[in-house]
Amino acid sequence: MLCKASLEAFEAYAMRLHGLLGSLEVVSEVLALLLECYGSCAPAMATATNHKENGENVVNWCLSCDGLQRPTPAAISRALLLRIVAQACGGAADTRCVEKTQFSNPWHRLLAAVPVALVEAPEPLAVRLAETAAAFFGGSKDGDASAASWLQTLSPPEAGGDSEDVLGATRTYAHIAGALLVLHPKGDVHAAAWEVTERIMTSPKAAERKVCMQRLLPRLVSATEETEAAERLANFIDVQLSGMTRGGIADALALGVSFHQHLLRHWRLSSFAGDHSDVGLNLIATGLRLGLKECASLRKQARFLLEMSVREALVDAGAESAVKSIASIDCTGMAAAWRSFWELFDAVEDYSSHLLKSSWEALMTRLINYMRGLKEDATAPRWSPAVLAPLWLEVFFARAFNHDNDSVQRFVLGQVLALDQGAMRLSETFVLGQMLPRFSHRIETLFPQTDLQKSFERQVTTFFSAFVRCHARGPAWAARRLLLAIMDVEAVHYTPLRLVFEVLLQVDTHGALTAETALEVLGFFFSSILTKTPISVRRNLASLAVCTVTRLCEGAPAGDCGGDTLVQRVAETVASVPDNLLDELQDPLAALAKATLGPDAMGHSTALLRALADPGDGACSGLSAVETLGRSVTPMVAVQLVLGIVRLLWSLGAKSNGDNQRLCSSVVLPAIAPTLHNIHRRPYIPRRAKAAAVFSYVYACALLPDGSATLEQQVEIHTEMLAYVEVHHAEALGHGSASGVIEESSWMWLHALLLRALWQASSSCVGGGADGILESSAAVINNHLKAVTTGEPQEVLVTLAAASALAAVAPKLDIDRRARLFVLLWRCHLPRARGVEVRFDVNDDEGLGHWQRNRLEEHYDLHRVDREGLGRTLEWRDTMAVFLVAKWRALASLACLPGLITALGKQPPAEQQAGAPVFEEPWPHRFGLALLAELETLQPPHIAFWAMVVRRVAFPLVFTASVAEDRQREMLHALCSGLRGTILEATGDSSTYMPQGCMAELAATLCDPLLLEAERRLFPPTFCEQSSAESPLTEAVRRLLAVGEVSVGVSRCVVAPLLASLLRPSLHSNQGDSHENPSEAAAAELMVALLLHQEATIPDGAAQYAPNIAAGVVDSDGPGGNGSLAAVCPRACELGRKFGGTPGLTRILTLAALDCLAERSSCDGNPRNERTTLPTLVLATLHGLLAALRRALEHLLRPPSSRRHSPARPPTPMPMSSTHRMQLRAWQAVLVLGAHADRATAKFLVAELFFHLSVTHVPDVREYQELLGCVLCGRFPDLAVEPLLVPALKQFDAAVQVSASLLIIVGYLFRTWAASPKEALRSQPERITALVLATVPYLSHNAAYVRGCAAWAYQEMVSAVGPESFCAHAGGSIDATLIQELQRFQTENRECQKMRGRLKLVFTDFEPGPRSILECLVDRSLVLQDVSESSQQQQQQQQTELALPPRGTGNIHMEADAPQLLLQHQALQ
User: In the 8-state DSSP scheme, what is residue 833?
Assistant: First the structure.
């Protein structure tokens, strides 16, 4: 009998043994061996009569004190004892023990304790406990059933529960099932284990799968027949691969490697017959494609499987003949090809790219040569995985595309584009599924702005052109697949999208798309893709998309093409085009209509319009397809189709003659006239027909060419339609039922559009006819202002309807009524609807229909309202948006009409609004202050109309003598800060969307002339110095320009109104010295900032996009309009078209405007066009530019790190650095403005110029300096030659570049004087003599270019006057013989003649002047961004007209014809 002391001694021995060995696993093995060798207790217990009592005692002792719950050596010893007891005593009573329920039984307690202990047990303890439980059931058949029954109770839960508990249950089950399978390899335990294993291995829980793979699957597979086990394992792998998660792929690869002997035979990957399983192939390919560094182990596992398959295939008996039939090489050649492949694969395992780049050419050449000899096996349906086929190269490329290093990705992608596609035979799935999405990733790396030659773009277009042309199923199929694939790319970038469109436009793929597919693609493009691209890119991208789809659709099979039923799809597609792109797409849309509808596209469109406006029922028999379609649509869908149809007619009639030019009167009106006749007297007409007829008429009058004439002629129709509006507007105002208010709320936009187009103020008293709309609406607003608003939904809709109607008719009233309505609308505020969710529908009638439209397009497009009306009120959140736009748009229209301020002064003072700031100023100045205070409460887009109101109403009322200066300063500070903050809220990563026109109006308000004048008056320099205050407007503009360097569109919004206000002709005169005029300092500072500014643009490879100047501006007559800018810069539109795609447009506009100001000031009031004093602003700007250049040069000469001047360090910045670009921009401006210099200006300008000439610069900067030196020294030789030029030439230790620049100026002066030598010698002999003497030493200069310039200049001057005459005028100071011999040598020496011939282009016929300099700078410069075919043809024509050689951007060139300033690419950046 085993006593307690023996058990405790064995446990103590285990504890001491662990202290000696230190590992539970080793302790477990030692104790097991010890019991096996020396422990004869098991046989003794089996034969003893009291074995049951001994077993129960051992079990009770082992389970006492939770001895199995802790991972200790004691627990190991107890688990081993329990296993022996279970083996000795458990087999006879296993069934009975399982069935017992009382926990007092020791055997039942043992079975209950083991699963609990296994949850947290470490590995050696868990193994012993699982063996104990398995041993209890024995190995009999009855034991198998009992074990399966007990195992079923331990099955992990299928779903729910805590993840840790589920994982613990899985671990318990795996250990016990694995131990049971040793004793019961077949039977119920085996079946139950496979059932649970299948559930776990096909679940998405990676931790449970891992436990199952480690503990249960090995024993389960070993106990199963190989075929069955392989099928089950392959199914597990297939399920995990279908999820494409990293955890699933890792588990699939782990299964494949662990059981590769079973699986490789099952998958037949080594077979050359092409009968292999796709599961194994996908597993290996998926593992090899993983590109991240942390997936290296997964790639190794996949590589192991592939190498094993290849090895088995190549050692097969029939491998030699199979390989020769496939690749015309033997097995050794195939193995060599695989070695090259793995060498290439190993090269991308390193993070750096140098190994790959160095080995690419050699390895890829071998692989390409191998691929050229690879042929399809006629007897097999596909290549074997053991053959190095294109599939594995695609796998390698995909792995490289997912590399951690961007340079590796770009290198491999570029190399793939340049490979022989015929030999590579890349699959369509790989090209469109793997490669194409790659071009939308890391755009800055793939398409850098420094790729001026667009080499990578050409590679991309060449590759996809070859893909389309050489596709096995024909170019049409390939073009269709390519277009659909690029549309399906998630978050596709506009650059690859543009390239694909350009490729499809170049290849001949007529008929690639059916009409239905073409329209579906375009609809998706306009509704989804285009809305996610930058606004500046949309115009070009939309045109390319329509032209591409039209080209692919031309020549398509007839089918439904041209049928009446297809016109609905065409109309829907055209209706999805944004209104602001409509003008650009007129011709492309016409081509699309003809390609899809056929030559009678206009007839089909008219038929659908007639059907939509037909009051008949669609259920009538005998109708055509288009009639049935038109009569059966819902009202809102009918409006959508009408919008598209009228646009179609407009585009189709653009280039037509005769009746097609009268589309409104001859096409649209006859189609809808039957419905419009007595429309208000026929309530039975369906809403669909009414809406279609009414909207088509008013929209056609706004869009079509003869719309205005038709609008004036159709008086009777106007009366009918106004009566119709009056009836429905009364319903909207609540004069009918409550349901009528809800029903009419969806059509308030249409009523307002009709009123704005048709309503005219009656000469009679208000109250009768259509004029009753005005009275009833005004009454609603007055009652709304007097009563306490409750926010009831019906009240909100009634107020909105009244405000929309008043806003539509207000601009057509007389001046007094305008003023009253102006105040009334301004006081009106719409409460939010109470008790409704803002995103719920206002009208939930299903019969209304749905027309899904982009919300930003409908409610934020400032110009769409002109033709299409206000936004629709479909959801409750739309009520506030529609009300604010209607209100402030009407106020802006009223503010633009003359006489409003005077009429406002006659109106009684309006009451202060609740919660608004209280102002004590008299009326109407108080009103102006209240308008300014509303800035804090407004948001885009209606804030643009507020900006128009305050410019025309508030500014004249506030910034006047009637308002205290302190109040004016307070409002100016708040206004400038608020305008700047509002603009900045819509830049960067902000979620606030602001249309470009809205930003332009805010910037125009900030730079308004009245505001600039107020700042000059309220914040003079003396006031700012005393109060330590900054000029608020100048500071706001400066900060906006700083933001404009990183945010697109900000600078272009600011530059137009700023130039229009600062440079307006009425502000400047010819008199005064700006250096002594402190009021010009702030303006000059802004001019310098603009001249040195680099605005942000949207990159598209080497090309760039940006909004046009004054893009989207609403107030075309305001300071931000094109007219105001043209007043100060007449060539603004021309310059905007040419340089709009560069970040230098703001600088060029500023420079051109200042040049125009200087030229205008020199010519105004001066009949002889003689140069007079420069404008003060121009002179102050010159001072600011030169000060900035001096600071930059001092920084280069004495950098902050070492203030000591280092003679060995060249004082030049790094090319293309910020300092280099600043110097380029500044010297450009100094050259253009300095050419207008008067004598006083030239005096300081020449001195500053020669200071910079004495220091080396980057060559392109130097050329601007040399050109300016030629201009100034030629006009003011007395200020430059003796005081500066001659002393500079006598500095013989100057740098070569300095000497060359000085001699270029000397050569220009000598050439000018040589044109009239006698007069020159007579007027300035001493100056010529001094300059010749200073030039002669340079004939011996060591530098060839310096020596050549000196020789040319000397020869030009001395030859012109003659050596004898020159010596006579120069006196006796020069040896006549030396002069004559030098001149004779220059004349007769052949090498000297060649030198002068080469320098002829530099000096001959070079005439810089104030007019020619700017013209050459902007006219003869070639802009890199003009990459379209039309732009290139225009530039070639310009080159022909100007006799310029065709070339790209370059430095300044002085040629024989005229000075040619080719603007450098870096100067534009």
Answer: P
